[in-house]
Design goal:
There is one protein chain. The protein is an alpha+beta fold and about 300 residues long. It is about 40% helix and about 15% strand. It contains nine helices and eight strands. A hairpin with a 3-residue loop joins β1 (about 35-40) and β2 (about 45-55). The protein is globular.
Length: about 300
């Protein structure tokens, strides 16, 4: 019943996804062939477990819906989960976006197991080079979304997966995008990282909203804490306070010993005017010299 309701209310959206899945030789997710190893994380409506395929021995991450007693709430959460999956599966593969594989359209979906969230792995950011590598990965992932006509709309540390390779370099993958429902006047994002126009829904569903969120993360990484807010707003404040400060006040100046180009880039990303924020491809080009300088040393 849940699947039918969700499917027919989003018929065109899911039809395009089915074509994409069939083209890729997609198979229905069979939960019986996977054994849970441990819990990786839990959000507002889903849990993610590390699982192993008993047939191949390969490890994956399984995102499963948390059951709700209220049928309406359960249906709404299922719709979010399926639209998240369909957005990711419709994107061409990219090294900075998590890969998704199968879904059963009622419990959850299977994706690649990769590192851990930036929230849990902030200790890996030990050098300036690591910080730049993380931001470069975020911008490259967002550029892939935007170049393919998609938006993430929920860029935050818990949705950025990172891992360190054998050479000590940090690899990055974006996960868990937010897909807006039909009523776009409602705000469903994360207040701490949401652009002011997105919270007020004044042209908020644009690539520039993603760039604002990336700017917040950039600022926080420089200070070494995800509790640091450019406007000094407490992380547990309500959405109206975040909106008021971001739209009506200027962020605090970056009085730190980092290159002026970095401080200028962050200031542009945090502008309350979307047109003044650089796009992802521009940010990539502006960060390249810093990685090239490190390579020469």
């Amino acid at each position: 019943m849940f699947f039918c309701t969700v499917f027919f209310t989003n018929l065109k959206f899911f039809f395009n996804v089915f074509l994409s899945l069939l083209y890729r030789g997609w198979k229905m997710l069979d939960l019986k062939r996977y054994t849970t190893i441990r819990l990786l994380g839990e959000g507002g409506f889903a849990r993610v477990h590390l699982v192993v395929d008993e047939v191949t021995g390969e490890e994956y991450a399984l995102k499963e819906l948390i059951p709700q007693e209220d049928e309406v709430s359960h249906l709404q959460n299922l719709e979010k989960l399926l639209m998240e999956f369909t957005l990711l599966v419709a994107l061409p593969q990219h090294s900075n976006v998590v890969r998704v594989f199968e879904t059963d359209f009622k419990n959850g979906y299977l994706m690649e197991a990769f590192g851990a969230s930036l929230t849990k792995n902030i200790h890996l950011v030990g050098k300036f080079r690591h910080l730049i590598q993380i931001m470069m990965g975020i911008f490259q992932g967002l550029n892939h979304f935007h170049q393919n006509g998609k938006l993430h709309l929920d860029v935050k540390p818990s949705n950025v997966l990172i891992s360190r390779d054998q050479y000590g370099n940090i690899q990055v993958k974006l996960t868990d995008p937010l897909v807006l429902g039909k009523d776009k006047s409602l705000f469903f994002g994360t207040s701490e990282y949401a652009a002011p126009e997105f919270m007020a829904y004044v042209g908020g569903d644009s690539p520039k909203a993603d760039m604002f969120a990336a700017g917040i993360i950039f600022y926080q990484l420089l200070f070494g804490s995800f509790r640091s807010d450019p406007w000094g707003v407490r992380h547990d404040s309500d959405a109206s306070k975040f909106y008021d400060f971001r739209f009506n006040r200027k962020p605090r100046s970056l009085k730190i010993k980092w290159p002026e180009e970095i401080r200028q880039l962050i200031a542009e990303l945090l502008s309350h005017r979307p047109k003044k924020r650089p796009d992802a491809s521009s940010c990539i080009e502006r960060l390249k010299p810093f990685l090239e300088e490190e390579d020469k040393e």
